[in-house]
Each structure stands twice: as C-alpha cells, then as structure tokens.
Specification:
alpha/beta, Spo0b-associated Gtp-binding Protein, Chain: A, Rossmann fold, 2 domains, 6-stranded mixed β-sheet, 18% helix
Length: 342
C-alpha cells in the first residue's frame, strides 16, 4: 500500500505529579518534607528516514501517543521521564496543523503554511512536547510552614490533529498522459522496475529511478502516474499526482508522438501544460523539455516534425522506449538539462 497523505492525532505525555512525603528515620522525628518532583512527559518526534518511502505505517497507527512521566516519590526522588515516541517518515514529508478532526484538507496547500518540511535524512521535528512534571512538597517549605502538604500536578502534554503530506523528492519528473510510455522509459534508463501493462493508469503512485551518468554522477527521476484533462480540479486523482512534481527541478513531458491511441501529440502536450499551470502557476515556469516516445510506430516521423514546428524553442528528444533507440542520446541530454537547472 502506498500512502502519501494521512491525517493523524498526536499526543505527548503528561508530566507526573509531585509527591507529598516527609523524612522518617530513626532518631529523626521531624525530618521535614522530602517529596520529589514528577517526571517529564515524553515528546512525539518525527524523524526523516531515507529508508522509508511512504506513510503507510501511519495508516495502521493514526493515533500516536508518547509515555507519561512518572510521579514523584519520597526521599526527594523524581519520577522517571516518559519515553518519547519517534515516528520515522519519508524524506519530503510536510506537516500541517489541523484545527480539528474534521478540517477540510482539499485545498490545504494554498491555505496553510506547513509547520515543517523534512527533506534531510535524520532531520527531526518535535511535533508535540511533553508536559513538565509537578513539584513535590519539598518546594513549599518555609519558615512559617515547616510541614507543607502542597504539591502540583504535572502539565498536560501537547496534542493536536495534523496532516502529513509526502511530496516526492527527485531531480526530474516524467509527466504525460496515461499510456505514453513513461514507466517503460524509466525501466530502460534506470534500475527501477515499475509495473508496465497495456492499459491506462498502470502506475498508481510515484516511482523513483536513479540514472547513472559518466563521471560517477547520478540523478533521480520520478515516474508520475498519468494525468488527464481536469487534473488541477482533482479529476483522475489529479491532486494526488500533481503534488509529487512540486520539488522537481526539471519537467520531462513524455508524449506518444505516434498518436497510437488516436491522440494528437501537440494537443496532449498543450493540455498537460495547461493543467500544471492551473494547479500551480510557478510550476509552469520551471525548465521543461519534450521526450517524443514511440518513434518505432507509423506516423511518428510526421508528428515529430509538427512538434518541432510548434515548439521550435524547446528541446525535443525522439526515443523508442520499446526498442531502446535514442536512449543514449536522452541520457546525455538529461545530464545537460539537470546541470543547467542548478
């Protein structure tokens, strides 16, 4: 199961209460107060882990609670501190605070500034802080009150509802209509093995592949599930897919240049560009290039010439992911594109 957005409830541990106690030893009849303080409650901590690729673990544990602090004891012994709850999340996780359990999250990316963006391996964020322990009666003695029975309860730990959203981190994204050949292309240029089949929406979640360049350089490429017209409004799970290209420096538009399903490659590219601009205008300003796939099929040459005429100022690389033609040229071009985008 791939989960890239989930609502959780987090509650830090409460502090333990202070203790009311008096020193009682042989030959010390009035030893005075010696009640210890309560222990601090545990924190709820999110930690970015490069070995975690999605939020599915939180699907089965949407309620996260840290341990409460122990109560104070006699002989001025403080209660134990509660154990913190550390939750590993994938790199690229954004955290939003929700006002309530039923908060609307459909247009959240435009309404709420995220609390944190976990992008580095090992980066930690304290989601909820544990409560401070209460004070024992030893703190309340004075010259006028030699045997105090006062104490304080521990503070409650922070709690709240949060939305965790994963945005895939990659250098470039393969974007296009379903069945354009994005997954086949990623299989050929990297070691990733996305599912490939002859029906649309075979890819249901982003898949990251690593492309090796000369000079021991490498780049990460994300295979984004196919987009359809109206994706910016959420059609075809558009919002679920489009969020994953927000971090990519370069957008690679994969088009079926042969029009094998009766489509027009130029119109397909124009529609996808429009959907991205409507979803987030800043995305349309990023560097983008065209990969003309399925060059081994009839009518591909003629449609490729039309693409060159229509997008004369954009780099177009003709390839056939099925036969492997043009993939070496694509890899060289990809290295140059990513170098220019730095």
């Amino acid at each position: 199961m791939f989960v890239d957005q989930i609502r959780i409830f987090a509650q830090a541990g409460s502090g333990g209460r202070g203790c009311v106690s008096f020193r009682r030893e042989k030959f010390v009849p009035k030893g005075g107060p010696d009640g210890g303080d309560g222990g601090r409650g545990g924190d709820v901590i999110l930690q970015a882990d490069r070995h975690v690729d999605n939020l599915s673990s939180l699907f089965y544990e949407p309620i996260i609670k840290a341990q409460n602090g122990g109560h104070g004891m006699g002989k001025k012994m403080a209660g134990r501190s509660g154990a913190s709850k550390v939750v590993n999340v994938p790199l690229g996780t954004l955290v939003h605070r929700l006002a309530s359990e039923k908060s609307e999250i459909r247009n959240l990316k435009f309404d709420i500034q995220p609390l944190v963006d976990l992008t580095r391996d090992g980066e930690k964020f304290v989601l909820c802080r544990g409560g401070v322990g209460g004070k024992g009666n030893v703190h309340f003695k004075s010259s006028r009150n030699r045997a105090p029975r006062e104490y304080t309860d521990g503070e409650e730990g922070e709690r709240g509802y949060f939305l965790l959203e994963l945005r895939t981190i990659a250098d470039a994204a393969l974007v296009g209509y379903p069945n354009a050949g994005k997954s086949t292309l990623l299989r050929k240029i990297s070691a990733a093995r996305p599912k490939v089949a002859a029906y649309p929406f075979t890819t249901l979640h982003p898949i990251i592949g690593v492309v090796e360049f000369q000079g021991y350089r490498r780049a990460t490429i994300a295979d984004i599930p196919g987009l359809i017209e109206g994706a910016h409004r959420g059609l075809g799970l558009g919002h679920e897919f489009l969020r994953h290209i927000m971090r990519c420096r370069v957008l690679l538009f994969v088009v079926d240049v042969a029009g094998s399903e009766g489509r027009n490659p130029g119109e397909d590219l124009r529609n996808i560009r429009r959907e991205i601009a409507l979803y987030d205008p800043q995305l349309s300003q990023r560097a983008w290039h065209i990969i003309a796939n399925k060059m081994d099929l009839p009518a591909a040459r003629e449609n490729l010439k039309r693409l060159h005429d229509r997008f004369s100022n954009i780099d177009i690389v003709p390839v056939s992911a099925q036969t492997g033609d043009g993939l070496e040229t694509l890899t060289v071009q990809l290295q140059g594109w990513l170098g220019d985008a730095h």
